[in-house]
Amino acid sequence: MVASIISTLFFALVTWSGAASGTDNRKTTDVTWDKYSLSIIGKPLLCCLARITRKCVLSGPTDYNNVGGAVDIDAVFYDGCESSLSIEFAAVYSKNDIGSHITMLGIYMTFGGTNWGHVAALVCASYGYTTMLRETGEARDKMKQTKFIGLFACISTDLFKTEMEGNGTSYTGNNKIFTWVLRNPDTDAGFYAMAPEDTSTRATAKFALNLKTSYGQISIPDVQLDGRQSKIILTDYQFGNSTFLYSSAEVASYANLDVDVLVPCLTEESSPSRTLGSSDLTISSSGKNGLSYLCTQGECIAAVKFSSSPLIYLLDKHTAWNFFAPPTTSNPPVAPNEHISVIGPCLVRNAYVQGDSVEIVGGDQNHAP
Ligand SMILES: *[C@@H]1O[C@H](CO)[C@@H](O)[C@H](O)[C@H]1NC(C)=O
Ligand SMILES: *[C@@H]1O[C@H](CO)[C@@H](O)[C@H](O)[C@H]1NC(C)=O
């Protein structure tokens, strides 16, 4: 049965309305970190006791200190929960949601709005405590991680309609890695969402991942997960008029401009990433599956231009954190020719083209958006 779905993450201010905002049918204890565990097997996401005893008041039904925001009401400053922020959580949680076929996610809170120091109930009413975007305008690393999911999910039209082809620990050469495979029945695009089976592990795992592609089975070596990390590896992924067979680097976004522009990014500190493209690409060794490219990415932005069309911007992890794709339209969803690629360093709010220049509107940690 084909599920027709829209993968959209809400990054706007979404008010939580009592019922669980999401359920997950993966394993009994899906996310277990040092300080808490979260059981999300087909049940509402529940408050975790560890947080309550620490007097961190959760702004929602789950551990929103890590997903949304939380406040420590015993502290002089209400940022007391900040020390337990775990930025990896944002990526692992969201990618697990995509793997589990969750198609809509409301995050409360994402932006710390203000009532300028007034008190509401017990606390100074700020939504800035441990949210992704503080009241001050500071974009936490948590936002940079979460932003990826939004960029990727909004632009990946192949993800809007997928079936769960399978899941389990047999897709890699390492049975400690759990993989979900989602496949678009129309385009055969594959989404391999992987995370350690034991989500509390900090051990780095390197393994080969077995992919089903339009060129048959392909095994890519040296996929790496740095402990609390999750990755989505793509096959037969269409970006504009181009398609790649697989990429071992995750994709942040793409654009369809006068050329197709792909923005893959490294999500671990450094490791080689490989991209295997269709035969209209021009360089590198040619194997039985077409042309393969191996790029070793340093701490920088690299641009690779293929003679046919695609232009590929390779970003290292920290550059990618500051990558934004502000839309030039106010209509969601954003088409691939309706956004502008911008590298921070500040929070980029908006961008538009005016005459010959691109106007970029941003903010930094001292200027509220
Ligand atoms: C694995 O796939 C099966 C079959 O589609 C599905 O019923 C099950 O819920 C999936 N398990 C997880 C953990 O997503
Ligand atoms: C994509 O294909 C369409 C239709 O053939 C064409 O009009 C457009 O110019 C192409 N875009 C790129 C970036 O190649």
Automatic annotation (TrEMBL):
Keywords: Signal. SMART domains: BetaGal_dom2. Residues 158-323 form the Beta-galactosidase domain. InterPro entries: Betagal_dom2, Betagal_dom2_sf, BetaGal_dom3_sf, GH, Gly_Hdrlase_35_cat. Residues 1-22 form the signal peptide. The keyword Signal applies. It comes from the Eukaryota. This is Beta-galactosidase domain-containing protein. It comes from Polytolypa hystricis (strain UAMH7299).
